[in-house]
Amino acid sequence: MPYPQNMHSSRPAPKADTNQGELAILSQIRARAAQTASTSLRLGIGDDCALIRPRLNEELAITTDLSIAGRHFRLDWHQPESIGHRALARGLSDLAAMGALPVAAFLSIGLPRELTTSSERRASWHQRFLDGLLALAAAHKTPLAGGDLSESPIPLADIVLIGSVPRGKALLRSSARPGHLLYVTGALGGSAAGLACLAELAHSAKPRSARPTPPRIPRKLEALLAPQLYPQPRIAQGLWLQRHGLASAAIDLSDGLSTDLTHLCEESKVAAEIDASMLPIHQAATQSQALHGGEDYELLFTAPAAARIPKKIAGVPVTRIGRILPARANRPTVTLITPQGREPLQARGWEHFS
Ligand SMILES: [Mg+2]
Q1: How far is it, in rounded angstroms, from Cα 99 to Cα 247?
Q2: Is the entire prediction scored with pTM above 0.85?
Q3: How far is the CA of 105 from the centre of ligand 1 (A)?
């Protein structure tokens, strides 16, 4: 059942262990979504379609990401707030990689019935999922403008994000050229290091109920787990690069540096070399996690050697890690320079939970 269609937005207070029906959930989502707004969104939830009015000379950037339990998150590892945050972060990160400004998000969710059960003392799983998603949406002024809801044997969330970018100014994967330098924002490998820690916590936790329940996170581990549980999409950094016209190509690091750099090289028909000693490895991560870990949601971008790239963009460090080379028949797509010499870097971004 799609969200909108003339539902009134007040929600009855849930009774003890209420299994909320779809209508109640939809009206709840609508009421909460109404608290977010953007100037380009003319009409949000409430009609058959949302209406978006792009400004003159702007193009719309559109991306979709599916998150499935057991594949992209685990009910016995991730708190529901984190799962909501991560679902939206994946889409926002794609907008950041294009240098786009978020305009609206659309969320379709499939949930087993028990995840919609709440009591006076305890919010339901789906309410906590929305808490996480809407907090990140508010931080990036991204209104939830529609979606769909269905009962499903496994939890899943599909997020569609619409962004806007001045015509012809989107950052593409396909325009890196030999001689351009390679940069990344932030630190690499933190998400994979956090995931390894989360897995340990989950395995050593005593089961607290028959249902899969994520482990409690000790306060001293919150910072270490943050890149995995609450990754920050680099919207401000992508916008800065787009507005200053300094980046020649960009991609976000969702699958891992080795895999995403290979994508960028293939789209640009070039090769690349990166210097292991220059990588901004997260303090908790290994070099392998930084190269292949994935889910860091940092930006990887190229710029001509003459471009003046600052050391920080909107508060996030930027590090030069290598350069673009011409593609040659006998040259690997990506080469890693180490103290021992040069070696081909295979694309082996981590396949979580596979
Ligand atoms: Mg992407």
Answers
A1: 10
A2: yes
A3: 16
